[in-house]
Amino acid sequence: MANELATSKDITNYLKHVFDLEKMLYQQNEILEHLRDSIGSVNYQMKLEPEIYQEKRPSVVGGIITAIACAFFAILVYFGYVFLKSPEGGAPGWFLNIMLGIIGIFVCFVVGGIILVVSNVVQTQSYNQQVRITNQENIEEIQRYRKNLLEKGKTLNDEYALLADERKKTKAVLNKFYSTNVIYPKYRSLPAIASLFEYMLSERCYGLTGHEGAYNLYENELRLGHIISTLDSISSDIKEIKQNQRMLYDVMSESQKMTKSMFEQQVINGQVLCDIRKSNQIMQYNQSQIANRMEHMHWLEEQKYLWG
Q: Which of 1, 104, 128, 177 qualifies as a FRET site for 292, CA 20 to 30 Å off?
């Protein structure tokens, strides 16, 4: 319970610090969640394999079969020609000339088949050589990519550890505020604190307890469905809370803008992945949180006479 010496202004000031700490904690949780997604994105990309093209085998069967078949028929026709040219065959000269022409055609097909086979082998070898070069380039590229990912993953994990530690310290300072028992345990959450602070700041209430106190107003608005008490109750569209819980809306809207400036989404192999835009943004944010936390802690120390 609040000290009897505490005025409405004192309680409002106290709520301001608690609200700021709850806001810090919410933002830190949001950033840590995005960092986890970014680390998962790095781990996913580490599994990506280089694009490897398959080498071809030269297609020589058709050419060989054509050459053999034509050679076979050329030989048969040649033997027929030899027989018909002999005294026993007695074929006229014009017919023998036709047979020579047929033999010539078959020989051309044989030569053509051989040329086709050789050409196919040469082209296939050239293609396979280019495939091997391309595959090697792809392998080297993915190796460089993975090396960069390893460095990026280490940076992300380091930043996650630092921010997780800062969140732990923020939570500890917030618990110090709550340990003064100014706020009843039921109302120790961001939605409740945001509403209580808003009531006191706008002077809708001048104290926490009593019939006209902030607790009672909060319970009435909650019962009427004008406000929500848990963040899980908020849909993806946070505008639904803008009218009745402006401070909570501002926190969530600001957090969305902040994470959007720090992180971006990209699609790789059909997977929507989270990626950090600039790593130094996380470091800068973390430094600002340390300063804010120390400021709140210093204020509480100065106000010991009121809050114990």
A: 1
pLDDT, tens only, 1-32: 555 678 999 999 999 999 999 999 999 999 99
Inter-CA distances, 180 with 176, 184, 197, 198, 303, Å: 7, 10, 17, 21, 11
**Residue 273 bridge partners (DSSP):** 266
Statement: the pTM of the whole predicted model exceeds 0.85: no
- Furthest CA-CA distance within the chain: 143
Residue 172 near residue 210 (C-beta atoms within 8 A):
no
What type of residue sits at position 297? Answer: M
Q: Which residues touch 120 (CB under 8 Å, ≥6 apart)?
A: 58, 59, 60, 63
Contact 50, 141 (CB under 8 A): yes
Burial 248-274 (b: 16+ CB within 10 A, else e): bbebbeebeebbeebbeeeeeeeeebb
Per-residue pLDDT tens for 234-249?
A: 655 677 777 889 899 8
Q: Match 């007695």 to its residue by tokens.
A: 90
